[in-house]
Amino acid sequence: MRNRRNYLFIIAALPPAIVACYIFLLGLNIPFWDQWDFLSQLLKIQDTGISFEQLISQHNEHRPFFPRIIWIGLAQLTQYNVNAELWINFFFALITLVFFIWQSKKIWSRLDVSPDIWTIPLIVLVVFNLGQWESWLIGFQTIMYLGMLSVVIGFFLLAKQASPLSFYGAIALGFVANYSMANGLFYWICGFFILLQFEDRALRLLRLVAWSIFSLISVTFFFHGWQTKSHLDFSYILTHLDSWGIWILNFLGAPIFTHWHIAWLFGVFGLIFYLVVPLKLSRGQRLIVSPYFAIAIFLILTAFAVSSGRFSEDKPSYSVISRYLTMTSWFWAALIALFPLVEFHYKRWIYIALTASLAALMVGGGWVGYENRYLPVLPAYESAKNNLKIKDTDLGRLYPDQNKTEILLKKLKDQKLSLYAE
């Protein structure tokens, strides 16, 4: 029995180990895309000092207040080694996963169900998968890793009706989620779903009122002076409802299979599963497993929000972009954690199919990241490292505004930051 546990632990530890090696080998210490925008802020802060307005300012649709604090701290500690951001993202993902598995084990025990031996390794493979290559290699994705840490842990804390401390911890994490990524706003909506499952009527009412007050404060402050950066065309969506529906399903199914011709089938399976499971549970059981459903609802709302600015019938591949898997992988982690609660035919074959698809995604995603992120950026990194002039095409791969990139690279060199501090 002990040997079996050791083998399972080794198997479960493989995906994080592979991702760690991937970051170590392919992480390049040079800013990339959105990181140049933060670098502008960082250099300004060094000249004028930190202001609350700078920290809370909008970036695209987000107000990444908490990620900016982390980035500034890392920059001070590492002379702005951007690879430190990759490792903090890895650390956040690992914390979230360990907490999720710990809570899932407690839930399975309370419901007196035994998970299949492959349940936990499969959850790990979903979360630590190189299908998310874009997020593993771009430090700016702290907004999603910290945001999802707050969402996942926060929902489990909120479901603990006997613990006032957990309730206020969930509120605090709501602010972190809200001020890490824009879809953190949906955290507050999903929180109502969990609180409505409480059996104690007085406690339910009291916490609903408190939740309403804090959510109103957070959301109101977020939208103060906020402007959308996306081109929203709801009339276009209404005239292409069938394609839009497929887009949503692709978004949800992408963590299992990232090709948009196939991903929607997994999206359909996931939604059907989430609709069927509650029918087999009592009210008390629904509260126990409510964090899983809250995670799913959060990501379904996220799919609708992202599609409102990204959907195009001509570009279905936008629905399966690698960086989105950092969020939607938790749709599937929660779903797999619910597997032990339901008996259905061919469960073994579903495990095999999911494992095979995720293993293929690990290999394919890793290769795509090497081809699309590492190799294109490497020439600019090596040229800058060797004090050679960077070609315009190579500069353009770092950031669209080449003039801005050249100016900021010179400042990095003058102050011996990032790759110039190596």
Characterization of the model:
There is one protein chain. This protein has 422 residues and is mainly alpha-helical. The model has no long low-confidence stretch (mean pLDDT 90). It has 19 helices and no strands.
Percent in strands: under 5%
Overall radius of gyration: 22 Å
Largest pleated sheet: none
Order of helices and strands: HHHHHHHHHHHHHHHHHHH
Briefly say what this structure is:
Keywords: Membrane, Transmembrane, Transmembrane helix. With 422 residues, the protein is mostly helical. It is 71% helix and 0% strand.
Topology readout:
Layout: H1 2-26, H2 34-48, H3 52-56, H4 65-78, H5 83-110, H6 119-127, H7 133-136, H8 142-158, H9 164-178, H10 185-195, H11 201-223, H12 234-238, H13 241-253, H14 263-276, H15 283-310, H16 325-338, H17 347-385, H18 392-398, H19 402-414
